[in-house]
Amino acid sequence: MNHTILSAKNLCKSFAHNGGQLHVLSHVNFELYEGEFTVIMGASGSGKSTLLYALSGMDRATAGEVFYGGKDIVKMKEKELAKLRYTDFGFIFQQMHLVSNLTLFENVAVSGYLAKRKSANEVKRRTDELLEKMSVSQIKTHLPSQVSGGEQQRCAVARAVINEPKVLFADEPTGALNRKNTTDVLDLLTELNREGQCVLMVTHDLRAALRGKRILYLEDGKIIGELTLPEYRSADEKARETQVNAWLTSLEW
Ligand SMILES: Nc1ncnc2c1ncn2[C@@H]1O[C@H](COP(=O)(O)OP(=O)(O)OP(=O)(O)O)[C@@H](O)[C@H]1O
Ligand SMILES: [Mg+2]
Fold first, then answer.
1. How far is CA 65 from the centre of its chain?
2. Dist. CA 44 → ligand 2 center (Å)
3. Ligand 1 lined by 69 (C-beta under 6 Å)
4. Which atom of ligand 1 is nearest to the CA of 218?
5. What does the domain layout of the chain look like in residue ranges?
6. What CATH architecture applies to the domain 4-250?
């Protein structure tokens, strides 16, 4: 039985544009299930990032509701929303946005300190554990400028999960990575999901989308398709790719 952790009802988002309104999201209804790896695909400009930002409270919807923890985050005061983003959500972006004058270790640990949920020792222990898991512990004293894009992104994944977010939001997390680094980051996300992490990822990349258990397809700000898949297994990737590709083709991707 799927348990809904976050849901959107009739979500709309418009931007002021050339004296008029640009309607980017139009009456989106959506449920995110606990522990599931969900992917949002769609053409460039279809509203994927806008949807992710509205669902995660990074931006506010123009109309509609986003329920999380029994509350509508669209109506939440900015202060409460900021706290929620900090305590319950984790974020990964295409550009890693690491703090340039902090080491990889410090970038992760600072998020842990700021949340004030763990003692300093516990934060340090967890940071080391995560950096080890992300295979960047040998370079943890390096600055972001001294490591590769893939290493930066692995560090950003560690930072995103240090406070054990209920939902991990990712917007094109592999968009700036080469093939090998893409696989590494996707493997990490898959592993985190196997351990129970709920992931909502926006991507253009078919290989990234294959990691999802559920793929939603957005067109002109509306969800026009949904595909449910079995658990991801690397041994089945080819068959999965064929299936997802055929589905995307049917949606004129
Ligand atoms: N702050 C804004 N002001 C005005 N228009 C915006 C704003 N943000 C997004 N848009 C417009 O909304 C539409 C959807 O943008 P969005 O970034 O959600 O697309 P996307 O599906 O994530 O595309 P991509 O795959 O290229 O990242 C685009 O036409 C974009 O120009
Ligand atoms: Mg986008």
1. 20
2. 7
3. no
4. 21
5. 4-250
6. 3-Layer(aba) Sandwich (3.40)
Nearest alpha carbon, ligand 1 atom 7: 15
Ligand closest to 205 (CA) is: 1
pLDDT at 112 over 80: yes
Q: How many CA atoms lie within 13 A of 122 on its CB side?
A: 9
For residues 24 and 184, give the distance between their C-alpha atoms in angstroms, rounded to a whole number: 33
By three-state DSSP, how is residue 119 classified? coil
Q: What is the pLDDT of residues 77-102, one digit of tens each?
A: 999 999 999 899 999 999 989 999 99
Residue with CA at minimum distance from ligand 1 atom 17: 49
170 pairs with which residues across the strands?
A: 92, 201
**Ligand 1 centroid, distance to 186 Cα (angstroms):** 24
Mutate to test the pocket of ligand 1, among 48, 200, 204 (most ligand atoms within 8 A of CB): 48
Torsion, CA 29, CA 33, CA 38, CA 43, rounded to 10: 0
Between 2 and 166, the more confident residue is 166
pTM, entire model: 0.95
pLDDT band at 52 (very low <50, low <70, confident <90, very high): very high
- The residue whose CA is least distant from atom 30 of ligand 1 is 45
**Residue to mutate (ligand 1; options 13, 50, 202, 205; most atoms within 8 A of CB):** 50
253: pLDDT confidence band, cut at 50, 70 and 90? confident
Tokens found for residue 83: 């706290």
Task: Indicate which atom in ligand 1 lies nearest the CA of residue 16.
Answer: 4
Q: What is the pLDDT of residue 185?
A: 92
